[in-house]
Fold this sequence. Notes:
Distance between the termini: 46 Å
Shape: globular
Number of strands: 0
Order of helices and strands: HHHH
Helix content: 55-70%
Mean pLDDT: 95
Structural class: mainly alpha
Radius of gyration: 13 Å
Largest sheet: none
Strand content: under 5%
Amino acid sequence: MDNPAVLLLLLEQGNRSLVDHTKDFVYLAPLTHYPDSCLCTFYRAGLNIATKAQLIADYIEWVLV
């Protein structure tokens, strides 16, 4: 399965660092023809629960400050 579009859809952070996950995503994204809005959704969907929780906490703090 060497199709970059499929690999991108299946990409998950799992136990890897956010940096490693992002590097893989940034490598695969330009090899597909997905619009930016879809890429943003795919990126967020592939993040692990801890990273998603941190993003929400940071967003709430940013909004309230």
